[in-house]
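Tokens for chain A. Residues wanted.
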């Protein structure tokens, strides 16, 4: 019995594997779910201040919103540029993300957008907003207005 406790078998000692401990981890986990075409998993790392959409089922149209988001972000390599804490709100951060977009002619460009991320207590960090207009429309020319 002592061996089981020494090996981490004690209650409450582990953090659930699907909780993002940092804003950057929430973005990475969300983007992995996008790449995997896993809407349910995307909903684990996106939601409202009440918690992840996959648990709260809010907003009511969250599945459709995630499907549109996936259409914009899939097959777009990304890198996290950094994050900033919102003034006077330590549980809110803006994570800047650079996406590499390729148009139908094979031309590539880098597009930078911001993801609003909040800490939800025992549910970790989740994304609450993504500015898709800065990412550009998939397949369109890589111009400043796409």
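Reply:
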């Amino acid at each position: 019995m002592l061996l089981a406790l020494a090996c981490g078998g004690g209650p409450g000692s582990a953090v659930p594997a699907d909780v993002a401990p940092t804003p950057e981890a929430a973005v990475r986990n969300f983007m992995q779910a996008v790449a995997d075409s896993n809407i349910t998993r995307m909903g684990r790392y996106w939601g409202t201040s009440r918690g992840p959409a996959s648990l709260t089922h809010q907003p009511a149209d969250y599945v459709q919103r995630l499907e549109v988001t996936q259409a914009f972000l899939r097959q777009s390599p990304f890198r996290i540029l950094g994050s900033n804490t919102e003034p006077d709100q330590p549980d809110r951060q803006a994570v800047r993300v650079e996406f590499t977009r390729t148009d139908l002619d094979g031309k590539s460009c880098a597009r930078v957008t911001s993801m609003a991320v909040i800490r939800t207590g025992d549910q970790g960090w989740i994304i609450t907003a993504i500015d898709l207009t800065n990412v550009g429309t998939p397949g369109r020319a890589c111009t400043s207005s796409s």
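The domain at 18-134 is CATH 3.10.450.50 (Nuclear Transport Factor 2; Chain: A,). Residues 1-15 have pLDDT under 50 and may be disordered.
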